[in-house]
Design a protein that fits this description.
With 275 residues, this protein is α+β, with helices and mostly antiparallel strands. The protein has 4 helices and 12 strands; from the N terminus they run ααββββαββαββββββ. Strands 1, 2, 3, 4, 5, 6, 7, 8, 9, 10, 11 and 12 form a 12-stranded antiparallel β-sheet that branches.
Length: 275
Amino acid sequence: MSRALFVWLLLALPCLAQDSHLLRYALDELVGQSTRYRSELDQSLLLAIEGERKELHCLSQSTYRCDFSQDTRRRFELRLKLESLRLETGRKGQPATVFDSSDPEGSDAGLSAAMRPLLQGSSALRMNEDGSRARLTGRETGVEKRLLGLLQDAWPIFPELPLSAGDSWKRTQLSTLQRGVELQIDWEYQLEGFEAGEHGPVAVIHAQASLSCETELLALDNGSGQLSFRFDVTRGVLLQAEGEVAVSSFGPGSETEVHETFSVELLEMLATPEG
């Protein structure tokens, strides 16, 4: 080997090593801090029951705060607190029913009564450094569970080894729906590469999801999703997520088609408020 080639390799190896990173949520550093996110969920629902078809639409826009803490057993907890919520819902082609937490007087009274508790309480989930979640706590309504589910879907789970551009990994998620129906979600992630960010490298990740469920009450004819993520490697926080999900299902005397798009974006990091 020539001396020039040897010197080049010595200089190049550190640069090549930087292309591989262990992706972890920096929960130790995040304890005592909060992250604020903005999210939007746009959902269309086609429901056919006994031959009658209904086409519904729901748009929700929210900001929420995630407070990180740790209990005496060194288990990390992520507590979610909604700070603002705007919801538009109704049948397509008709005026929407609106709830806006910033405009109580202009909001629908019935929807306000249902949505107001979401802004008064909070919910929590156990979390590990790889992004896996143990359980949710709190008594959530159907709408809140979907908003919490949106948050969970937006946080990818990472493998235990350092990743380089082109690496892929899989995971399976089980979710219990109403009446004990179990939904299986098979995820396949791929690391597209790293971008230069304000605080260091940012991992760009693409994911595909396939959904399956088959019981006497419900069967999925088709369920799939496409998602993308941007993750701050140095600070160990999710910066952005966006995706699209389409699901078709059928049960006794009914058929349902759901299409939704969603986005989640980090607004800021700050110290957790006292109390």
